[in-house]
Each structure stands twice: as structure tokens, then as C-alpha cells.
Amino acid sequence: MADQFTLGLLQMRCATDPATNLERAEAGIRQAALGGANIVCLPELFTSPYFCQRVDPRLFDLAESIPGPTTQRFSKLANDLGVVIVASLFERRAPGLYHNTVAVLDADGSLAGTYRKMHIPDDPLYYEKYYFTPGDLGFRCFATRHGRIGTLICWDQWFPEAARLTALQGAEVIVYPTAIGWHPSEKAEHGQAQYEAWQTIQRGHAIANGVYVAAINRVGHEGESSGGLEFWGGSFVADPFGVILRQAPHQAEDLLVVSCHRRRIEDVRRNWPFLRDRRIDAFADLTRRAIDG
């Protein structure tokens, strides 16, 4: 396998019409491929506005099966372009059973596999526990034509255990499809600190595990004009020592095309051998909710 793989991160606004979002996502994937990307990543739940801002049973109609219409469309696109596509979808698994799921489509159009979001938030305007059953596939890494891709989703970003277990399976890059933003009333006071915390924790995952990290966010205001959420964009790629290679703006759509080198993973891990020095004999208590006393 070549030393280099190239990521394409599509930071996009999401319209109310799913067909429009699919068309714009396809155009972005084609543009990324023309720019040299061979692994193209889309934001969390990109086919619609972020519907978890409210509780409404009618919104379950947005879900689809996997395999299903979107994976079939992107399977053909992946095969035509020879690229891997990482697509975040609202999965209808069975009547009344839904997941927040990433589908990884390999460069020959085959479905390399799926990852179901493990950590489900329940916060103001992020009412995901109403819609999503927690993932039951564990943490996953997919061997594709262009690289070994670990997939986690949004709220998973904050948990070092998730990144570690994904990296231990051989991931060269951990991809985080994301839908995160500011409550407009909080932005002036807390906005900068919130974004910096978000980026810092993920740079920490890159450093602690010696892997590339790619976070792909949406952008733009969604929801009520007097409230809602302002998605903060800021998509980025960090190298295995946490160096920011490219970063998108906060308020505009963007396409990041970033070359990544496997040799960089090897060099960082040789000089900062965190995986070598882990005391795996002493970590059993990590499976406990709390250590009392």
C-alpha cells in the first residue's frame, strides 16, 4: 500500500429537502475526488437539518434502511470515482428501532461495514436519546482500498476510551462526522472556549493514539430564528502528533483536501511510544462506573 492517503472533508449547510442535500453531497464528493481525495467524509446526518432539536415522532420518517437508497446511490458513486465514502445516516433497523449510523463504502462500491453511535447525548436542543438506540456493534475499524478507517460520531468525540479502542484495531485515521454548534445566546460568552475544548480533546486523541483525526462538521444556523443552533463548522484534520494540517472556517461551507502519510504514524509512535508503555495489567477499573471510597 502506498505511503499516502488523501482525505476529503465536506463541510456543508443542510437544506430542508433531503434530495437537495444528496445532490450537493454528491457534487462535493466529485469535487473532492477531482482534487485528489480518495477517502471522502460527510457531516453527521447530512441528508436533513439536525432534527434532534425537538421531539416529534413524525421525524422518524426521515430514517432509512442500510443498505438502502442512499448507500445504493453512494455505492455507485464510490465505484465510479474509485474513492471511499464515509456517510452518516439515520438508520431504520426495524419498526421502532433506529440508530445514528455511519456507512463506509469502499472504493469498489461494496459496503465495508457500519458503525452505530455508541454515546448518545440528551441535552437542550440535542434530544438524541429520543431518536437513537445506542450502538451495539462496538468500536470499529474498516480495512478499505485506501486505508484503515476508524469511525466514531460526534458525542463519541469526547471519550478517550472510544478513540483508544478504535486505534487499537489498527485505524490509521479516526473520522468523526459531526453536528455540533453554539446556542446563540451562549456564543458571546462561551463560544470560543467551547470550540477550543472540542478541538483540543480530539487533538489529544490523535496524540495519545498516534493516528490522524478528521472531524467533519456542518455549518449554518438551523432551528428557530430567535434560538436554534449555530453549527460552528471548523472542520479540521490533525496529524498523529496533534498538529492541525487544515481547518475550515466557522461560517462558510468548505472542502478540505488533506494528504496524510503512513510514515508519519510510524515516526510519531517510535518517538512517543504510548501504546508500548500502556499498563494494560492495571486498567481493569476503567470498566467501572465509579471507584467508590
CATH domain fold name: Nitrilase/N-carbamoyl-D-aminoacid amidohydrolase
Number of domains: 1
Question: What is the count of β-strands?
Answer: 17
Helix and strand run? EHEHEEEEEHEEHEEHEEEEEEHH
Instruction: Give the averaged pLDDT, no decimals.
Output: 97
Topology:
Blueprint: E1 4-11, H1 18-34, E2 39-41, H2 69-81, E3 84-94, E4 97-105, E5 111-116, E6 122-123, E7 126-127, H3 128-131, E8 140-144, E9 147-151, H4 160-167, E10 173-177, E11 181-182, H5 184-209, E12 212-216, E13 219-222, E14 229-232, E15 236-238, E16 244-247, E17 254-261, H6 262-271, H7 274-277
Parallel strand pairs: 1-2, 2-3, 9-10, 10-12
Antiparallel strand pairs: 1-17, 3-4, 4-5, 6-7, 8-9, 11-14, 12-15, 13-14, 15-16
Summarize the structure.
This protein has about 290 residues and is an alpha+beta fold. The protein is about 30% helix and about 30% strand.
Notes on the structure:
This protein has 293 residues and is of the alpha+beta class. It is 28% helix and 29% strand. It is built from seven helices and 17 strands. It has a six-stranded mixed β-sheet with strand order 5-4-3-2-1-17. A six-stranded mixed β-sheet has the order 8-9-10-12-15-16, covered by helices on one side. Strands 11-14-13 form a three-stranded antiparallel β-sheet. Strand 15 and strand 16 form a beta hairpin. The radius of gyration is 18 Å and the shape is globular.
